[in-house]
Amino acid sequence: MTLLEICQAIQNTEIGTAMRESNYYWMLNGAHVLGIAVSAGAILWFDLRALGLNMLDMRISEVYRQINVYMTTGFILMFITGTLLFWARAADSYTNVYFRIKVAGLLLAGANAMYFNFKTKRGIGGWDTAGRPPFNVRMAGLASIVLWAGVIASGRLMAYTF
Amino acid sequence: MSWLGTTVRQSTWGFAGASVILLFGIVLLLGGIVLMSLRLFGLIMPGRPISRVARDLHGWILAGLVMTLVSGIIMWAGHGVMPDLYESVPFWLEQELLLAALVFHFTLYRWVTSRDDAPRALRGFTAILALFLWFGVGVAGRAIGFF
Fold first, then answer.
1. Test mutation, B13, B22, B27, B61, chain A, max A CBs within 10 A
2. What average pLDDT score do residues A149-162 get?
3. In this structure, what are the phi and psi dihedrals at residue B107, rounded to the nearest 5 degrees?
4. Which structural domain range is residue A45 located in?
């Protein structure tokens, strides 16, 4: 089976169809869209600190510690609602160019986060209290902001090209 | 406003572009409200004074407010995309909640978040009201496209 056929099968499942035709589908959509306030908001909070643009008096590790639960909760919410939304319109999404851009953005954002967590953060002892962190830390923050903005924008534009 | 409406409707990306800016504004505005509410509940940065956190987030909320209001006006002007906007129940609900949110924001919210000695119950109430009003605007706004 091709990927497209798999997506069509997913979309045509009873659950997928029920969600898509439900009177409450807009709530699933709304939860995903408004979820960016928690998820992207929390990520932005940390990214701005990594860029040395806010909360300069707070240690970067402390900002991370405070916001981590909400970043994670937000991400889980977005992942669950996003999966359900995809399930309801798997084939429509698969063939949508903005969906593909969005997936690419998600993968890159994930890679950026992993690189920061496993490599860059190792040296945190040297820059935890720095008002203006080193270049690679600031770049991680900037890349995160740009990539997540791209994910949000392409996600929104999906609606106009279905 | 008809020149704006015509411009938006005739531009391929006018309405769509405005809706993207609207989402960025929502991240800043609602994100800022969420973070401030978490602080008011004492769930985040409990050691950092409330007034300090409010000042940290002031820029977010202001920028988010400007972005959502401007893009919202552009979308309203270009609503030829949605001819029966004025018959939309969620649209009017959204506007009423927006008005309430703005009044609340420049009165009780401002009072509570500019000081560190507000009573705990009042802080909690302000946080709940902020979340209810602003997310109410968001939910009603989202509903416009579906009803």
1. B27
2. 95
3. -120, -95
4. 3-158
Q: Do A41 and B30 touch (CB under 8 A)?
A: yes
* Prediction pTM value: 0.95
CB A94 within 8 A of CB A7: yes
Burial state string for B76-93 with b = 16 or more CB within 10 A and e = fewer than 16: bbbbeebeeeeebebbeb
What are the phi and psi torsion angles at A12 (to 5°)?
Answer: -90, 0
Per-residue model confidence as pLDDT tens digits over B100-121? 999 999 999 999 999 999 999 9
In chain B, whose CA is at the least distance from the CA of A49? B56
Nearest by CB to residue B24, choosing from A33, A152, A157, is: A152
pLDDT reading at B82 higher than 70: no
Q: Which residue of A has its CA nearest to B42?
A: A66
Please indicate whether, in this complex, the C-beta atoms of B34 and A152 are within 8 angstroms of each other: no
Look at residue B60 in the predicted model and tell me its pLDDT: 96
What's the domain count of chain A? 1
When computed from its CA atoms, the radius of gyration of chain A, rounded to whole angstroms, is: 18
Torsion of CA A127, A133, A136, A139, to 10 degrees: 150
Residues of B in contact with A26 (CB under 8 A): 142-143, 145-147
Beta-carbon contacts of B109 under 8 Å, excluding residues fewer than 6 positions away, are B126, B129, B130
Q: Which of A37, A115, A96 is nearest to B25 (CA)?
A: A37
pLDDT in tens, A128-155: 998 999 999 999 999 999 999 999 999 9
